[in-house]
Amino acid sequence: MSNETLDIKNEKEGLGWRISLSILVAVGWLVFLVLWLFFYAKNYAWEKNVAIFLLSLLLLTVILGVPWAYWAFKKQTTVEKEMWKQKGFQWRFWASIIIGLGAIIFLIYWFWALAQPYDIYQNLAIFIVALLIAGGLLAAMWAPWGMTHPLEHHHDHHVHDDDHGKE
Questions:
Q1: What residue ranges do the domains of the chain occupy?
Q2: How many CB atoms within 10 Å of residue 106?
Q3: Distance CA 55, CA 115 (A)
């Protein structure tokens, strides 16, 4: 077997069950959503339905995110592996996950437990403010890192003369 065939085989290893899982989870989520909306949503206030929808998105993200993230971690290029060694990258990565989870968990809690006495516009304001705070924190956190590591981590898929055919 040639090296190119082995490379393709290694790239595709583990893809099959992840793709099947993604399809099954996506279809299962859509089935849940349709059944929820037509059979159960009327039993809850709209705020609680928003909380349930957000919780279902969180679960969908975790169920699909973990196996795909693990696959991506295993298939990292040399450049990507080096990025993990860059000062400040790891804590920003983990902080990004915590901020994202914190925002969605806050919104789930807000819509389930606290949103009822407020009107739709006030709840929309809380939703927007939560996203703005999370986005602002992420931007403020990543901008300095991006400015000190500008282009060295962008993937250039073109083969250069000095690469001798290797990427």
A1: 3-154
A2: 15
A3: 15
